[in-house]
Amino acid sequence: MTGHEDGLLAETARALDRRLATAQATGRAPSMVAAVARDRRVVWRGARGELPAGVEPEDVQYRIGSITKTLTAVQVLRLRDEGLLDLADRIGAHVDTPHGGDATIAQLLAHTGGLAAEARGPWWERTPGELRPELADVFGEHPRKHPEGRRFHYSNPGYALLGALVERLRGRPWAEALRDEVLLPLGMTRTGTAPEEPHARGWAVHPYADVRQPEPTEDIGRMAPAGQLWSTTADLARFAAFLSLGGRDDVLADGTLAEMRRPAAPPEPEGWNGGYGLGVQLLRQDGRLLVGHGGSMPGFVASLWASPEERVAAVVFANVTSGAATGALGTRLIAEVLEREPTLPEPWRPDPDPDPALVALTGPWYWGTAPFELRLRPGRVLDLTPAGGGPGRGAAFRPETDGTWTGLTGYYAGETLRVGHAADGRVDHLDVGTFVFTRTPYDPAAPVPGGARPWGASEGGRR
Predict the structure, then answer these.
(1) Distance between CA 138 and CA 309 in Å, rounded?
(2) Closest to 99 (Cα-Cα) out of 135, 69, 125
(3) pLDDT per position as a tens digit, 352-407
(4) Same domain for 277 and 372?
């Protein structure tokens, strides 16, 4: 069963249909469902294999595994934005834990806290959470594998700690806080910790024969923030749009979402095309940056990928333990759409309420003798770039309430831009992290450290 919404050309939809059909057949998945969203709207959806009769495939729940982590990360960052914690805080300052207490909250979000990859045995994904009733029961014999902050090492117990952090600061279970503060505001009414009909059953398919056996579906208890959730392609398409495009300050501010999408963990030597932010995986493919997450639990694999710059996202689920390459299919669906129907730029519109003082700041500036250009962007953002695309350190700067700007990108990320004035009130320089930019190269009237002479003047007055 396949279908598509208005918004894609018929030949594009047919190409997506074929990719889904091929992935389901070659991956030997009892069922596979997928959706592509563009500009917050589902423009294609498809389904292959065995699905519950009489319901729309986009409403069928599948287990999404570690995509749960990204939702947990959103909840943790809400706490930070409310001022209840700092990402540099040790988790032990908020949660009573026998292990991992010295890791910071940021390190746990980015899997650089040094904790073990898995919870204490037996195999936690296939056994009930009652075997690990307390937080201390999550940790095995050697819970710390690396020094904090030194390297990326994926850790499921790290997200159990983050779930406990949410519980501690909200005073109620992680799942309840997530439901009320993230899922329901985003319209994700079919996402939760337990399956609700209609839902897919999880299967393991024999590697050498076309036979299968059912997989267990356990409530994993304390490990739930790492991989418990069930969802639908319709719900996760909404979440993908939020994650990549923002626009919901009642859930998480756009600036915080952008922070999530920035690399926060060093890549492995062989993995320079991929990385990890704060609760999201990052992938550089075909010249574009993709953000999202993959997930797996016994009987299920899932993926969510989005291109924020080109405003396209893909969600893929399959009810099979292994073999179905949902992640590869998701990235290929995005590429297929963008190759056939490239994203159009947003239409240019004039600033409805321009600030003349900021407009006057724009134009050429010089760092010493190096020419730069300052542009005014929407939202009073200043964009300082080397003139003509030449060499140099450029950055975008967001406005602050005290009349300064803070760098968002590149070398000047986090640094302060100040507008300097002469004694008569005239703007005569920019101070960017103590570097002085002037309207002409080394303007002698501006406060250039070390002084500046008029051009052509010789040392000591001699020519």
Answers:
(1) 39
(2) 135
(3) 999 999 999 999 999 999 999 999 999 999 999 999 888 889 999 999 999 999 99
(4) no
CA–CA gap between residue 234 and residue 61 (Å, rounded): 10
Whichever domain contains 100, its CATH number is 3.40.710.10
Residues 387 and 304 in one domain: no
Query: Residues 96, 136: contact at Cβ < 8 Å?
Result: no
Report the range of poorest mean pLDDT among 353-367, 430-444, 448-462: 448-462
244 and 136 in a common domain: yes
Structural domains of the chain, count:
2
Phi, psi of 273 (to 5 degrees): -90, 0
Return the structure tokens found at 236: 């996760």
Strand ranges for 68-226 from DSSP E: 203-205, 212-214
* pTM for the whole structure: 0.90
Confidence band for 4, pLDDT divided at 50, 70 and 90: very low
At which residue do the structure tokens 């069928």 appear?
60
Residue 405's contacts (CB-CB under 8 Å, 6 or more residues apart) are 382, 397, 398, 399, 416, 417, 418
Q: What is the pLDDT of residues 106-120, one digit of tens each?
A: 999 999 999 999 999
Structural domain includes residue 74: yes
Distance, in Å, from the CA atom of 292 to the CA atom of 326, rounded to the nearest integer, reads 13
* Structural domain boundaries enclosing 399: 356-461
Contact 91, 108 (CB under 8 A): yes
Angstrom distance (rounded) from CA 245 to CA 355:
27
- Distances in Å between the alpha carbon of 95 and those of 65, 132, 164, 332? 24, 17, 7, 41
> Range with the lowest mean pLDDT among 163-172, 266-275, 315-324?
266-275
Asked if residue 16 and residue 106 are part of one domain, the reply reads: yes
Judge whether 349 lies within some domain.
no
Chain segment 308-340, per-residue pLDDT in tens? 999 999 999 999 999 999 999 999 999 999 999
Domain identity same for 235 and 323: yes
Radius of gyration of the chain (CA): 26
Residues 182 and 327 in one domain: yes
Whose tokens are 């450029």? That residue is 394
Q: How many residues appear in the chain?
A: 463
Q: Which of 311, 340, 369 is at the close of a domain? A: 340
Instruction: With beta carbons less than 8 A apart as the criterion, state whether 135 and 95 touch.
Output: yes
